[in-house]
Amino acid sequence: MNDENPYKSPESRANGVSREHVDQESFDEADDSRLIKLTSFLTIADAQVCQAVLRQEGIDSFLENEGSVGVNWLWSNAVGGVKLLVPEEHLETAAKLLGKVQTTEQAKEALGDITFECEDCGAEITFPGDRRGMTETCPKCHEYVDVPD
Ligand SMILES: [Zn+2]
Asked: SUPFAM superfamilies, from UniProt (predicted)?
């Protein structure tokens, strides 16, 4: 395939080069919905996993190379920093869906402190949000306690 010209206009999608980017171009022209950056990834592969999850739920998302656009997009596997953009009206749903995908300590932290009763001594004890689902030691009776999710 020797006609794979990166300077091609966005209208030409014959080669299937970076379909997401082309779609986003036409999306911007239509301007009937704003695209909001939901999150960013180090690699296109990571971003595409999340894109696939969103697509299953009927949400179209778009990828954009952080810091550079156009021709460089095709080389950005080596660059890192891929933005995941979703239409504004789907932002909240998409964020929840990706929350399920990326169950990170960070996400748990965002939930804030957790307070519960120790099973052994009945004391009310509090742990930081990132201890959810872990086993900790009760500060009162020093027995092991399971921190609720
Ligand atoms: Zn206790």
From this structure: GlnB-like (SSF54913)
